[in-house]
Amino acid sequence: MFISLKRMIAGVTLACGLSMAAALPAAATDLSFYFPVAVGGPITKLIDGYVAEFQKAHPDIRISPVYAGSYQDTLAKALTALKGGDAPQVAILLSTDMFTLIDEDAVLPFEQLAKSDADKAWLNAFYPAFMENSRAGGHVWGVPFQRSTVVQYWNKEAFKEAGLDPEKPPQTWDELVAFGHRLTKRDAGGAVTQWGVQIPSSGFPYWLFQCLAIENGVVLANEAGDKTDYANPKAIESLQFWHDLSARERIHPSGVVEWGTTPKDFFERKAAIIWTTTGNLTNIRANAPFAFGVSMLPEKVRRGSPTGGGNFYVFKNASPEQRTAALEFVKFMTSAERAAQWGIDTGYVATRPDAWETPAMKAYVAGFPAAAVARDQLQYSVAELSTHDNQRVTKALNDALQAVLTGAKSPAEALGEAQANAERLLKSYR
């Protein structure tokens, strides 16, 4: 009887324990998420809002956003953390960082995560132009999120004052020069008060130069990321054109033009036409004190712009549970609805065609048709310059561009040296 009672008590205790265990919530899966922006500001508020929305739908996953500074800062911090055994599980890094991340054995191909038919359909839902900087060696390494192209903005009031049709931006290089002459203003002393054209050359000079190269029919790097074509005669011709906008035509500021202040120069009527990222669209819409237009870039032998911006990456250090959670988070953040809202909120290009079919995006484009320009330009776009040892290979080109724009070297000399440096850096990868 005593033994039987003991067994009964043990059985009741076990049953209660199992019941209580079943009632307790499962331990949450924690994900560290690196995002390339300085702390504070509207972008961080948007991301915080998306994270909160995701966690409400997935209470078993906790996301910790880390706002890590510039893209370069974020990459450096992620790789440093990787070497210290504390890498993030998820990060937004430049699409052009793909080869660096592969060479560092830092990230997972998404095929290892996206295994169901629904997952595979999601992975195939993005614009092909954006996937050019997401695939290598037959694998998908990054998923497009905040992506962009370079577009042309023009001040319609300045066009009217110059006797130009305010609804017709320059469509060719020849028109860009002709319009630039009519739009450049000088005071009585000959000092320029408004430049006709402004193309920034600090920060990302290779990206803006790539526009000119593409428009002149040359792609600066191969798909495998182990060869460049910096010294191609058409590339030299493209750089000569950029140089001549200031040195010969005198319709463009001389020297190095700051990336960060170019939109402000536009607002302040210091430049009538600017080239910059579509990621500035919301900023320009909010701050330009005049009617403005947005168009595809003008062409020489073809239209074209490189794509740009950041992709989602999942790091190898993630546990199986974290990998599953990371996939859910990336899918949520890149859904059609989220891609549409991100594009509306920021000006980045919604990265998948079905995002443009959502009611929110249709209403936005109906009220602001300029938002669709970058999307329409994707059919002419090519991958942003990306290679193995990308930062040094790109720096070789950036240094060459700035040497030419400041008058220190000729285009042929500078690009020849840049190609020799790139060849030396990339030889081992072949």
UniProtKB/TrEMBL annotation:
GO terms for cellular component: periplasmic space. The keyword Signal applies. SUPFAM superfamilies: Periplasmic binding protein-like II. InterPro entries: Bact_solute-bd_prot1, SBP. It comes from the Bacteria. The keyword Signal applies. Keywords: Signal. Its main location: periplasm. Residues 1-28 form the signal peptide. It is found in: Periplasm. Belongs to the bacterial solute-binding protein 1 family. This is ABC transporter substrate-binding protein. It comes from Telmatospirillum siberiense.
